[in-house]
From TrEMBL:
It comes from Hymenobacter psychrophilus. The lineage of its organism: Bacteria, Pseudomonadati, Bacteroidota, Cytophagia, Cytophagales. GO terms for molecular function: metal ion binding. This is DinB family protein. It comes from the Bacteria. Coiled coil: none annotated. InterPro entries: DinB (IPR007837), DinB/YfiT-like (IPR034660). Keywords: Metal-binding.
Amino acid sequence: MHTSSLQQNILAELDHELVTTRKLLALVPFEQADYQPHPKSMKLGQLAVHIVNLLAFKQLFVQHPSRDFLDPNGPKPGPAPTSHEGLLARFDEASASLRAALQESDDEKLTDGFRLHRGEQTLLEMPKATAIRIMGLNHSIHHRGQLSVYLRLLDIPLPAMYGPSADDKIWG
């Protein structure tokens, strides 16, 4: 499939990553939500919820010119899901909402600037498409990698992500 627009390329990349992310999130054992492989690591449940909440962060890049972390009226993710059903429902809702926002956007809007800041302190300033890829997709993939390590340490077989996993029969 040939995708020629910035918007279509981001949507194709997003769709690919959402499938893999959902497969991994479906494996999270909520009865072990407090599992923490290291004292400096997030707990398993926190990490899974963070991955899902990053979808709303990506949508923010698409729909707004900036986000001030000090703004008390800024978007908040709401209470953390405490079950598979709740986590996957939030994931599906946020995925659909992000896809819709991207579909309503266009290449010109995606080249507009986005500023992430804390009051007067600029944390990042870049084109929206770049912010979506770096602080959105890459950030999510990074945390998804962490989640795969947590699951491996809990002896939960992993699905294929970018090719077969060590748990796939293809490796023998």
